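Why run this: before we spend reagent on co-expression, it is cheaper to look at a predicted model of the complex and decide which construct boundaries make sense. The entries below are exactly what would go into the expression plan.
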Amino acid sequence: MTQDVKEIFGSPVGSLAAKVRTLAPSMTRSMQRVAEAVANDPAGCAALTVTGLAELTGTSEATVVRTARLLGYPGYRDLRLALAGLAAQQQSGRAPAITTDIAVDDSLDDVVAKLAYEEQQTLADTAAGLDTGQLGAAVTALVAARRTDVYGVGASGLVAQDLTQKLLRIGLIAHAHSDPHLAVTNAVQLRSGDVAIAITHSGTTGDVIEPLRVAFERGATTVAVTGRPDAPVTQYADLVLTTSTSRETELRPAAMSSRTSQLLVVDCLFVGVAQRTYETAAPALAASYEALAHRHRSASR
Amino acid sequence: MTQDVKEIFGSPVGSLAAKVRTLAPSMTRSMQRVAEAVANDPAGCAALTVTGLAELTGTSEATVVRTARLLGYPGYRDLRLALAGLAAQQQSGRAPAITTDIAVDDSLDDVVAKLAYEEQQTLADTAAGLDTGQLGAAVTALVAARRTDVYGVGASGLVAQDLTQKLLRIGLIAHAHSDPHLAVTNAVQLRSGDVAIAITHSGTTGDVIEPLRVAFERGATTVAVTGRPDAPVTQYADLVLTTSTSRETELRPAAMSSRTSQLLVVDCLFVGVAQRTYETAAPALAASYEALAHRHRSASR
DNA sequence: GTCACACGTGAAAGATATTTTCGGTTCGGT
DNA sequence: ACCGAACCGAAAATATCTTTCACGTGTGAC
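The model came back. C-alpha cells follow.
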C-alpha cells in the first residue's frame, strides 16, 4: 500500500534538493544521475513513468526505484506524488508576481489572470473601506422605506438596475432611473421615510446628483454610493457608502473596477435587507425562483 | 504517455473544486460520489489507488476512471498527481477556512467579509476554468463582425448590456436584447460573419436559446456564456465560454455569483477586442471619456 | 400496463506501470 | 591474473490502471 500522505508531505518538501545533496556521496553513479534529474526538474520528472525517467537518465527502472528508496520513499510511485506536490508549490510560489497593467501584446492568458487579479483586489479594497455603520443605517432605511428610487447612468445605471431587481425579488418597492428627467420627476414624489440612492463613481455626475438633491430636499433618506467621499454628490447624501478607486489603465477603464466595487456594495445592501426581512424575503426568493422554472428548458440530463 | 505536466499544473490547481461544481450536474450518481470525495479530501484521495478510492466511495474502478476523465484528466493516474499537487498547496498556504455561508444573524461586518470572499473565489474559479482558446476565437469573431447581438434576460440581461456598452465605446456595432421577441426578430437579420452571444447561467433559458438558435441557423458565429457547458444552449453555440458555478445559499442566490463570473468573462472579451483593435480602440475610449466630461460637475476640491 | 430501449454500473479481462529477481559486468584488491 | 563485492539492467512478477462487456434499472412509448 502507499505511504501515508501525511508522511509524504509532513517532512518539508523543499528539503528534497538538500536530501539529494546529503545522500549523493552514498549513491552510485547511476543513482546520482537519477537524483540529479529529479532535483533539477521536479515538475518534468513528475510527468515521467519509471521507464521514462530511466531512459532520460540512461539507466534502468531498477535504478530509479532504488534511488526513490534511498530518498526515503517506499517506491517510485510515491516519489512521483511528492514531486507533483513540489512542482505545485513552486508554481504557487511565484504566482503573485504579476504586473497588473495590461499591455497591448499580453496573451489572453495574461489578460484573464490580470483582470481576475485586479477585480479581486478591488473587492478586497472595497470590503476594507466599507463603513458598516453607514451600511447598517442604509439597510435600516431601506427596510422601513415606503419606496426606494435608485439613480445611476452609464455603467452605474446597470448597477442601479441590479439593485432594484434584487430588492423587488424580496418584496420591496424599488425603481431604477437612468433617464435624468424621469429621475427628477420621480424624485419629487418622494417624502420622508422613502429612500433615494445615487450611484456614481466620480461623484460628480450631474444627472445623478440632481435627482438626489430633489429627494434630499423632499425629506427622503438619501444614500450616495461613490468612490469619492468628498465629491459634490455627498452634499445631498445622508449616508455615504464608499466604493474603491483603483488605478485605471488605458485598456482597463475606470468603469470596470468601479462596477465591481459598486456591485459588492449593492450586494451587501441586499443581503443586509434580506437578513432583516428574512421572514418575508426567504419565501419571496423561493417564489420568484419557482415562477421562472417554466421558462427553462429541461437540461440535457 | 502521461499528460504533460504543464497542463496539469498550468491552470491553477484550486480550480478543481470549481470544476467539480461545474460538472457535477452532468455526472451520474456514482460519479458524483467520487467527485465529492475528491473535492472534500484531495490529500486523502491522493494516497489511494483506484481500487482504494472505488471502495471508499462504494463504487467500481471503472467509475473512478470515468470521473477522472470527466474532470479533464487522461486517467486516474493523472488525477492523482494533480491531487497530490493540490494537497501540497493546501498545506503551504493555510486554508482560509471561513464558513462562507451567510447566516441570518451574521453581523454586517461578517456579511461584507463573506460576500467579498465569495466573489473573490468566484473570480478565481472563473479565471481558472476559462478556455482561452475559445475566448480567443470569440475575440477574433467579434473583431471581424459586421454587427454583434447579445442576448440575456434577468440578471444576465444587465451583463449583456454591460458588454454592449463597452463594445460600442470602442467603435463596434453591438446591441443587447432582453426582449425575447425583439431578440428573435433581430437575430433573423444576422448572417455569416456576424456574432451572436447568449448569456445564461443555467444554459436552459428558452428566451435566450431561441434567438441564438436563429442566429446559428442564419450562419452567424454564435457564442454561449454559460455555467453549464453541456446545457441545451450549447447546441447552437460555435463557441462556449464557461462561467463558474458556486454553491448558492438561501441568502445568496445563484444570480449573484453568476453575475460576477459573467462580468469577468465579458471584461475579458472586451479587453481582448480592445487589444486587437488598439489603433482605433484607444482613441475611441479617450474620445468617449472626453464627451462625458461636461456632464460632470467640478469636484468640491 | 407492458414492452423496448437507453443508460448507468460494476465484474472481470486486458494493458500498462512498478517492483523484484537474478545473472552479467565492472572494478578494486590480492 | 584471479577473486569478491558492489553495481547495474533485462526480464519476470506483481501491482495498478484501463477497457470491455453484460447485467440491472429506470424511463418513455404504445
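Chain B has two domains: 3-98, 132-291. Chain B is about 60% helix and 10% strand. Bring this page to Monday's planning discussion.
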